[in-house]
Specification:
Keywords: Amino-acid biosynthesis, Histidine biosynthesis, Hydrolase, Magnesium, Metal-binding
Catalytic activity: L-histidinol phosphate + H2O = L-histidinol + phosphate
CATH superfamily of the largest domain: Fructose-1,6-Bisphosphatase, subunit A, domain 1
Oligomer: single chain
GO molecular function, one term: histidinol-phosphatase activity
Number of helices: 8
Order of helices and strands: HEEHEEEHEEEEEEHEHEHHEEH
Shape: globular
Strand content: 25-35%
CATH topology of the largest domain: Fructose-1,6-Bisphosphatase, Chain A, domain 1
Protein name: Histidinol-phosphatase
Strand order of the largest sheet: 4-3-5-6-7-8-9-10
CATH architecture of the largest domain: 2-Layer Sandwich
Number of strands: 15
Enzyme class: hydrolase
């Protein structure tokens, strides 16, 4: 890693696991309890748990790596020593807040490490389920076992996921409906959990819009290392400046077929 020559991806992943371990008991302490819920400008709920987890993770990162940048959902951006190019941690304390506040255990903590703007390490942790996916170059794992995407190469055989069909509007909704009409099976919900399922071969294709970098950056190393493909709807790599439209597929062939439909 050019900006952190003394750190290996394995070092970073070990610290990301420490962060996720610190987040888990906080999430569990608040889950299925009366919550102070407010509504953000984008109409997604924010809870005490979101803020408590992000504050804890920021404190741990700043103590270990004071010159690293941090981009979190609730508390914004802390520039690093090299703004825009140096090491940056991207964190979503609770991805799937609507699931969290309604007692559904399909919420997760997302942690990504970027170097030079590119995601190097990703972690998807599911506190209520005691499940975790990790990804670094050449290695994706579900717990201690290797994770691998399915061999599905055809949309007609694909098991499709999206968080909610209500997330699409206008031209995006037209493209989404054209895509799902050709899929073998459609399922909804799950937020980040669906991407873990894709990495482990249980679903084959995911398309979403309106995501923020903290929603998708941690997913990229996991999906890629598991053998899948994840890009925006133009087929470009996901970056901090992407437009929030995400397409993830189990194989390059399936991704190419889905991408052609979305671009049509």
């Amino acid at each position: 890693m050019a900006s952190s020559p003394s750190l290996t991806p394995e070092d970073i992943l070990a610290f990301a696991a420490e962060l996720a371990d610190a987040a888990r008991p906080i999430a569990r302490a608040y889950f299925r309890t009366p919550l102070d819920i407010v509504t953000k400008a984008d109409e997604s709920p924010v809870t005490l748990a979101d803020r408590a987890i992000e504050a804890r993770l920021r404190g741990l990162i700043e103590a270990r790596f004071p010159d690293h940048g941090i981009f979190g959902e609730e508390m914004g951006v802390k520039p690093g020593r090299e703004p825009g190019t140096g090491p940056v941690w991207v964190i979503d304390p609770i991805d799937g807040t609507k699931s969290f506040v309604t007692g559904l255990p399909l919420f997760g903590t997302l942690i990504a490490f970027l170097d030079g703007g590119a995601p190097v390490v990703g972690l998807i942790d599911m506190p209520a389920l005691d499940e975790r996916w990790t990804g670094l170059p050449g290695q994706a794992r579900f717990g201690s076992e290797p994770a691998r995407t399915s061999p599905c190469r055809s949309l007609s055989a694909a098991r499709f996921f999206t968080t909610s069909p209500e997330g699409f509007s206008g031209a995006d909704e037209v493209s989404y409906r054209r895509l799902t009409a050709k899929a073998a099976l459609r399922r909804f919900g799950g937020d980040c959990y669906a991407y873990g399922l894709l990495a482990s071969g249980h679903c084959d294709l995911i398309a979403e819009t309106g995501l923020q970098p903290y929603d998708y950056m941690a997913l990229v190393p996991v999906i890629r290392a598991a053998g899948g493909v994840i890009t925006d709807w133009s087929g470009e790599d996901l970056t901090l400046a992407s437009d929030g439209r995400v397409l993830a597929a189990a194989t390059p062939e399936l991704h190419a077929e889905a991408l052609a439909i979305l671009r049509a």
